[in-house]
Amino acid sequence: MEEEKIFQIALSLIPQIGVVNARRLVSYVGTAKQIFYSKASILQKIPHIGPAIAHEITNHAVLLEAERIYTDCLKQKIQVYFYLDQAYPFRLKQLYDAPLLLYFKGNPMFQHDKIMALVGTRKATEYGKTITYQIVRDSLDDNVLFISGLAYGIDIALHQACLELNIPTMAVLAGGFQRIYPALHSKYAFQMMEMGGIISEYPFHQKPDPRFFPLRNRIIAGMSDATIVVEAAEKGGALITAEYANNYHREVFAVPGDLHHVFSEGCNRLIQKNQAIIYTDWNMCRDMLNWQSQVPIIHKNKCLLWDQLTEQETQLLALLHQEKILSLDEISWKLQMGVNQLAILLLNLEFQGFLKTLPGHRYALK
């Protein structure tokens, strides 16, 4: 396992490969180790893998760097998750642009039942900080894990509120763990380790880079069931996170603000364009996500007649019985069924009381 992990790290280091091509290689070849021991002539036959990438793989230049990174991870007690690992966050796993690798330090809670991203401007007002604290406080009874980016303003207000109220929180970084940015917030990052932690797709020694900040926002959005934007100007990282969340078909909420304030423009615009649901209170947000009750519904005199199901319905229910929880895309791929056809099938089975819908377009048997 250790040897394969080094090859997985090496795969992520290949220049210009990208997560899509890296996944394509794994799909065609099998394991990361097998990729590096394949001939260049074989690799070039794989779609979109040209001579340049094949050469980078076969000259093994990145393997020494991968060994150094893995050694550092062991010393620093950093966990490394490959996208095929069972422990890799399932909400991310279904996304086309999910990171190939995640580096994590802390208490892994990736499979938490309820995960909420909360983001906003770096120049937060007292109103924004108050609303952030109020959201966290109001969620106390719902066992929610909050994710943000450790930045100035709304991000750090979220993490501070979680730490004060003993609510789990994670921060996604735009660089490695050696140089946490901003350095002033390092103390909060270390405090998160017991109930959450810090996440990055970059190795330990990687310096923060302006190019990485928009990319880390896709992880914040992708790991969450929904995103709340508290305060945002007309342009900024919070709106990028909201855009990613919308693209991933996750719910987006926006806190309305003063029409005359620059840091209300982004939230008000999201609401105006129907790109976000107006956030009024936590109960409304919880209801929208179907988080309001964990009490199982008992249907009196309900008899599930399997012999009246179609072949496709039987296959779908058997799949959910085996896998427990699956996303819409995962069911579509496993059953080789179109998403539109599958959506109708799922809706019918939900009406009949066979299954339930979970946040993030996931499904499970009742």
TrEMBL record:
- Domain Smf/DprA SLOG stretches: 80-283
Per UniProt, residues of the DprA winged helix domain are 308-360
A biological process (GO) of this protein is: DNA-mediated transformation
Q: Which domain of life is it from?
A: Bacteria
Q: Which InterPro entries match?
A: DprA, DprA_WH, DrpA_SLOG, RuvA_2-like, WH-like_DNA-bd_sf
Q: Which family does it belong to?
A: Belongs to the DprA/Smf family.
Protein's recorded name:
DNA-protecting protein DprA
* Species classification: Bacteria, Pseudomonadati, Bacteroidota, Cytophagia, Cytophagales
